[in-house]
Description:
It is globular and about 50 Å long. It is mostly beta strands and about 270 residues long. Strands 1, 2, 3, 4, 5, 6, 7, 8, 9, 10, 11, 12 and 13 form a 13-stranded antiparallel beta sheet that branches. The two termini are about 30 Å apart. The protein has four helices and 13 strands. Helix 2 packs antiparallel against helix 3. It is about 10% helix and about 35% strand. The longest helix is centred in the first third of the chain and has 15 residues. It has a single domain, classed as Porin, CATH 2.40.160.210.
Amino acid sequence: MTKFDEATQAVRVDEHTYDVCLDPGYAVGGPLNGGYLMAVILRAVVDDSPFAHPVSTSCQFLRAPAAGPAQVRIERLKAGRTAAFHRATLVQDGRPHIESLITTATLDGAAPVYTAPVPADLPPLSECLRLPQPGPDSGMTLNARMELWFDPPTIGWLKGEPTGVPEARAHFRMAEPQDPDPYVLALAVDALPPVVLSAGAARGWSPTVELTWHLRALPAPGWLAVRATGRLAADGWFDEDVEVWDAAGRLVAQSRQLARAGTRPAL
């Protein structure tokens, strides 16, 4: 079991309840990363489901939970021959923090009939850059849990040179050796800096309000390629679409989220 497996572990208490312990190692300047929190919820739901994989997940982030004990409360909505449907709520101190609807199924790893190609604008790993290591008091503990190597122009905002286009592109893997799985993909779809940084439209923490993602295939071992884009930043809100490809060049995950733009100074 890897550290990420341990950090997302869900322990069954009864028919509708799982105990979890939210790990402070997945924080972004204080708040816990939304992809990490989704992975925690998915562990509980998949454990309860007759099917092996979370193929569709939609989450409303009501408030930011703190590191420490929490519960995932689940409701089984329907189970059919090929898919099951759950409602799951992350609860801490008696209050709901994340509400989610999750569809599970079992993917067999069959060769795709068609898959979109890995974006040609993501350069090879040797031409990419990492973000500077955050200071010990920054609260950016998530950085130590994963490796992200970025297409240099998409992090030009670090030097005050944003491209003016809401985009981010990077190679991704966990810092601890681990083959990617659906729970790692839940983290990957929310792992990049907010695309509004590259657009020059905002600075600081941008909390996710709603995120929906789809597991399209079981990923092959190795690096993942992640591309995030946005269409509109206005009135303090922005959207972000993310696509993830595996080392075999297959599209394995897609997401869309709505978020608030830059509510804190950049760390």
